[in-house]
Amino acid sequence: MNKKAVGRGDALEETAREEGRRARKKAATRRALQDAAARMFDERGYQETTVKDIAAAAGVTERTFFRYFPSKEDLIFAEVLDLVPLLQQEILRRPAAEPPLTAVLNSLVTVAGGRDAGLAILFVDAPPRALSTQAPLTHVLTDFEDGIAEALDTRFTHQTPDVPPARRALRASVLARASVAAVRSAMIARAARVATDPGHRLVDDFAAQVEEAFDVLRAAT
Is there a contact between 55 and 61 (Cβ–Cβ < 8 Å)? Predict the structure, then answer.
């Protein structure tokens, strides 16, 4: 190999390393903004926390914040969507004998417990009615439901291969959307509690809150 070719190879490797460093830095900044937002929403409340507050807590400027998220609401939506692949992986890891609703519930609790900020960004005083627009939220919730349905359908495919695919898909879809309804109900109940008790903003009761909502769901099935 001639020196020119070696030089080009070294340059390409350095470019790849630099792109990797930039990607890691961007991912770290994005995560820092989301974690800062979750902490501040929990401490101050969604409405009382500004973009400027979040940026300062993450150690960046407001301008940097807007390079990652068009608005405070978009940060919430991005946080929800980031959970989808993690939740899918966890649902697929659950024991095959575990009932589907139980698998979804346990997966939600596991994913929440595995994050620094948990699911604070969902379970403080920022329910759907606190957001200024419904359209993006509807899209995000649909994606969340679809992600759960896809994972459940995969479980059903392995567990009941003789059931027609359309029937498996319908079952997965119904259970996924019912699960999200339970989570949303827990979120709304959480927000109501915060409204009457502003000092109660910690999310350490996440598991109990969502388990209670799923108990209601299971009792009706």
Answer: yes
